[in-house]
Amino acid sequence: MDIPGSNIGSEHPKFALPVDSEHKATEFRLFSAAAPHMRAFHLSWISFLACFVSSFAAAPLLPVIRDNLNLTATDIGNAGIASVSGAVFARIAMGTACDLFGPRLASAALILLTSPAIYFTSIASSPVSFILVRFFTGFSLATFVSTQFWMSSMFSAPVVGTANGVAGGWGNLGGGATQLIMPLVFSLICNIGVVKFTAWRIAFFIPALFQTLSAFAVLIFGQDMPDGNFKALQKSGNKPKDKFSQVFYHGITNYRGWILALTYGFCFGVELTVDNIIAEYFYDRFNLKLHTAGIIAASSGLANIVSRPGGGIISDAMGKRFGMRGRLWSLWVVQTMGGVLCIILGRVGSLTASIIVLITFSVFVQAACGLTFGVVPFVSRRSLGVISGMTGGGGNVGAVLTQIIFFRGSKYSKETGISLMGIMIICCTLPLCLIYFPQWGGMLCGPSSNDNATEEDYYLSEWNSKDKEKGFHHASLKFADNSRSERGRRVGSEPMPFDETPATHA
C-alpha cells in the first residue's frame, strides 16, 4: 500500500528531478517547488530565516531598548552572548534528533518550543529578563542543523554543497532582514501614536508570529527523505531504526568533525557576532541615525543572498574538478581572506571605507560557511546529524568566545575587538590542513596508496559485523558509490553498482 506523500510501495518511484540510487536529487532547480526535494529546500530555508529574524530582532532596536531597560554595556554584551550560547548544545542535540527522528519533526518541535520566548520579549522589564528571553530565543538557531541535514538527505554529492549553501545562506538572510524589518515596524507603530518604549515591545509580535507559522508549514508540507518520513520508512522496513549510542559514538569520535566545528566557529560564529554588534558600532562610532545604522548593518546579513550560496557552488565546482582536496583548499583560502578583511575593518576610520570593507568581509566569511558545509556531508554517513550538529554548535561557541573576549564590557574598543577577531579567524582556520580522508587525501597530501582505502571501506567502518548481517549498511554502500565524484577529474574510477558489496566486505 502506498503511503500518501511518499514513494514507498512504488516499484519505480517517479520524481520531478533526476535522482541517484538513494533517490537524492542530482540537480538543484532553485525556482522549482517540486516535492519532495525542492519543497524541502524552500521549507527549510524559510523556517530557518524566521528563527534568524527572531533571534536578532533585538539587535537593531538596542539603542531604544537599552534606554527603556537601563542596560549597561555589560548587560548588552551578556544579552548578545546569551542569544547565541543557547544553541551550542541545542545544535548537537538537534543533530542527534535528526538522525533518530528526522529533520521535519525535529525542526518543527524546536521552532514551536522557542516561539513563546519571542512573545515574552514584549514584557521584559529588567536586564535579567531581557537576557533570559534572548537566551531562550537563541535556541531556535539550532534549526540550522536540521536545514543542513535535510538538504544532505535530499541532494546528491555533486550538488549537495550548493543546496546546503543556498538553504543556509537564505536562512541567514534573517540576520540582515531583521535589521531592516524591526526598525521599520517600530517606526510604523510609533507613527500611529504609540510611545517608543511601548512600540518596540509590540514590534516583537511580528517575528514571533512568523516563526510560529513556519513551524506548522514544515509539519504539514514537509517530508524527511525522498521516499517518505522517518516513521513510515521504519515501519515499512525501508529504514532501520538506529541506536542512539552508536550514532553519537561514531559522530564524536571522528576528529574531522571537531576540526570543522573549530573553523566554523570563526566564520559563522563571527557572522553571528557581527549581527549582534554592527548596528550599534556604526550608530556610536559614526553618529548615525538608528534607521541608517540598521540599513548598513543589514547590508552585512543580506550579503548571504549570494555569498553563502556562492561558497556552496564553489565547493561543488572545486570538488568536481579537484575532489575533496579542492573543497578543503578553497575553504582555507576564502576563510583566511575573511580574517584579513576583518583586521582591516577594525582599522578603517571613514564611514564609506568601513561600509565597503564590511560588505567585502561579509561576502568572504559567509562564503566560508557555505564551503564548510560542502565538506560536512562527507565526514560521516551514519552520523551525519551529529557531525552537522557538532559543526553548527561550533559556530555558536565561536560567537560566544568572540563576544566574551572582545565585545563584553569595555576592555577593548569595538574597532580593536574587530581587528583582534580577524587575527583569531586566521589562526583557527589553519587546522584544516589536518583533515585527511584515506580515499581522497587532504590539503597537503593525496589519497592513501593502500588498496583498501576506498569509499566503501571508509563508510562501512561505521558498521560492525552484526549490523552488516542485518543489512543496515546498505544505505552507506549507496552513499559510498555516489560519493566517488570526490576523487575529482584527475583520478579515474570505475563506478560500482550500488547493490553490490565490495569483495573486501563479502
Q: Overview of this structure, please?
A:
- It is a single chain.
- The protein has 506 residues and is mainly alpha-helical.
- The chain has a single domain (37-223, 248-442), classed as MFS general substrate transporter like domains (Growth Hormone, Chain: A), CATH 1.20.1250.
- Helix content is 67%, strand content 1%.
- It is built from 23 helices and 2 strands.
- The protein has helices at 37-55, 62-69, 73-85, 87-101, 103-121, 127-138, 143-154, 157-191, 196-203, 205-221, 230-236, 244-252, 255-265, 268-285, 290-302, 307-322, 324-347, 351-375, 384-406, 414-429, 455-460, 465-469, 474-482, and strands at 436-437, 441-442.
- A two-stranded antiparallel sheet has the order 1-2.
- β1 and β2 (441-442) form a beta hairpin.
- α5 packs antiparallel against α7.
- It starts with 36 loop residues before the first helix and ends in a 24-residue tail after the last helix.
- The model is unreliable at 1-12 and 491-506 (pLDDT under 50).
